[in-house]
Design a protein that fits this description.
Chain lengths: ~400, ~400
């Protein structure tokens, strides 16, 4: 008898039949004697429909009012799922973000969870009810309706699991779990049984879409065991858990990639304090998120600065950077909007040397030129030409032996 | 500079263009220097869509969960209208029933308003904002989402007007106001400039659909002046106000009718205490609302009881009544599902005699047989054959001179 939080996304509750399927799955866990809290998203397409309605009224809809409207999507889902569970002869009760009291700050459309007072949810469980919580939404101290941003339902689920001290937070999705890399590119990609929070964080932020990044951070901070699994079958998925000694033996756990990158280089920038701040400050003002930044060592008091941005922001960024470069007397601005980033991720890197070198060697063998390199404790990322992205992923997947058994210390 | 509550129904906010039109109307009042609170319904069709979704999941959806779902309709409307008003350069802020704190009992799908804490709405007005309140919904003491039943937005508007002590509650609709009778039947029907709460109550409950009955009761209890007017033009509509001396001079203010009635008679019922209670108790258990009841004087210890019910409930009622009649040893049950009720309404009846007689005479002249009669202080209703309904309305409209100038004491 465990306490389980289950999260179902918009596709899983996309129509009446699917809602009934989710209800069946929930009641199976209930019938097995578990206490169940369910977090649901809006029915697939509903959030987009509401956003489009808002944009028909106003090009820049007020974010407070947008949250008022968007929160209705999940409110409909929780009511329908509760009815569906009741129709199967079980007890259920729905809760909006405001009713659960998922307390957030007042940053509308991207609010942060401050605390959860799960008293009503606990009471529902004590009463033998399935508690159904609206994902993606919360309430500010001023009783304003807030939303948590895209993918926010994952965060709701993890935060609820932390609040009620659940044994596990199950994230139901349309894939079987977290893979060593994208199976669409590498057919022999292997489903991981376990992955550490830190690795999952890197994988998530590097482009693997199974879990929202902030939900992984939250799970890590509160030690919530997360089980990413398919809503279409009963196979065990991937457990996202605290790092342990066994994990460190695996040098590289996965290969992530992002094809939607663009690279910009400013050459011969005067190497004096404040220059980088001036450049990236202006880019940030335009709400453009800079990913990787590389600055070469200074020569004759000048340096080159390279960085990457999402490809969608390339044109706008170039415009800004050209203006700033002129002001600061830099030589040239060179742009390339056809770049990709491939990364190897693994906590084993902390204790193993030569991992980066093995990556460069594998890419070099295929004559894939590395334009930029960036490393952290548990990942190495390379910017390459976009057209080589898939090839690079396959080569790295092979080089680190991810297709068969994981490469461990012993196996080397 | 007045404080105005405006209420717009689902048709008025049925699509993006109409919402923008409502926004324009609201901002005109604002630009004229008035403080404005707006109450809106769900976009036309939305409530039905949500009900149908719920019924696809469950034949008898849980009423608590139904309220959770239904309340989203108005929540979308308030957000969109707020955005539309902001797009016109005015300040606006939306409020759900829970945020305003429209406190209700916990009778889901038909909750009663207990109190309104309009502090946040007052603050919004002080801040120079248009306050936009979701109609039809409230919140129970246990923070449950409740709804007020069909037409509940009228009630929200009147209750809000009472709570903020508004100068007037404007109910915007698709007709020009309250008419002496249905203009579809009597083309010369005249729009009333003023009507008393009691007359409006009778007109509303007798089938005139411009205002929900409970909202009129609420307006009467709190002395809220209600202005029923068209959202398609700027003509003054009908003021629903406290009775005054001038009104009493008008003998009959309007003719109401209801064609969806059925009549049932139980003959030779033993005339002893508890018999009526037994009969109507069983009918009430089936959630059938009995309208008119007439019991003839007793002869030889037996009596006949006649009553009317909505035509939709006729078959079910006949079944119940036949069973009860058998148990109590009554003679026969006679049903007629082709009846209508026509009524004359006017506070002037209190001080004028012969009004009923004039009604019977007018109907008699056209050989319209009166099957049942029921009277109150300010109305006389007759049940007649349904096929004569329109004729009866025209005849009575003519007999009481409603087409031209109202018949007053002096004019008689």
């Amino acid at each position: 008898m465990a306490l389980i939080v289950q999260k179902y996304g918009g596709t899983s509750v996309g129509d009446v039949d699917r809602i009934t399927n989710v209800a069946r799955r929930v009641t199976e866990a209930r019938a097995a004697g578990h206490d169940v809290v369910v977090v649901v998203s809006a029915m697939a397409g509903e959030t987009d429909r509401l956003i489009s309605l808002a944009h028909k009224i106003s090009e820049q809809p007020d974010e407070r009012e947008l949250d008022v409207i968007l929160a209705t999507g999940e409110q409909v889902s929780i009511g329908l799922l509760s009815m569906a569970i009741q129709a199967l002869g079980f007890r259920a009760r729905s809760f909006t973000g405001s009713q659960v009291r998922i307390q957030t700050d007042d940053a509308h459309t991207k609010a942060r969870i401050l605390s959860i007072d799960a008293e009503r949810v606990r009471q529902a469980l004590t009463d033998g009810e399935v508690a159904i919580v609206a994902g993606f939404q919360g309430v500010s101290a001023e009783e304003e309706i807030t939303t948590l941003g895209r993918g926010g339902s994952d965060l709701t689920a993890v935060a609820m699991a932390a609040a009620v001290a659940a044994d596990v937070c199950e994230i139901y999705t349309d894939v079987n779990g977290v893979y060593t890399t994208d199976p669409n590119i590498v057919p022999e990609a292997r489903k991981l049984d376990r992955i550490s929070y830190d690795e999952m964080l890197e994988m998530a932020s590097l482009g693997a879409k199974v879990l929202q990044t902030r939900s992984v951070e939250y799970a890590k901070n509160y030690g919530v065991p997360v089980h990413v699994r398919s809503s279409f079958n009963y196979n065990p998925g991937t457990m996202v858990v605290k790092e342990d000694a066994a994990m460190e033996k695996v040098v590289v756990s996965g290969i992530a990639y992002n094809k939607q990158e663009a690279k910009i280089t400013v050459t011969r920038v005067a190497d004096r304090p404040g220059i980088a701040a001036a450049l990236f400050g202006r880019v940030a003002e335009a709400n453009i998120v800079v990913d990787m930044i590389v600055q070469n060592i200074s020569q004759d008091g000048f340096t080159d600065i390279s960085f990457t941005v999402p490809r969608a922001d390339y044109a706008k960024t170039m415009e800004i950077v050209k203006a700033v470069a002129k002001e600061m007397g830099a030589d040239k601005v060179i742009g390339d909007d056809k770049t990709a980033k491939v990364s190897i991720v693994g906590v084993g890197m902390r204790t193993h040397s030569g991992v980066a070198a093995r990556m460069f060697e594998a890419l070099g063998k295929e004559k894939i030129n590395i334009m930029m390199i960036s490393t952290s404790e548990i990942k190495v990322s390379c910017v390459i030409e976009a057209k080589y992205a898939e090839l690079a992923v396959r080569v790295l997947h092979e080089a680190f032996g991810l297709g068969g058994q994981p490469v461990t210390e012993e196996a080397k």
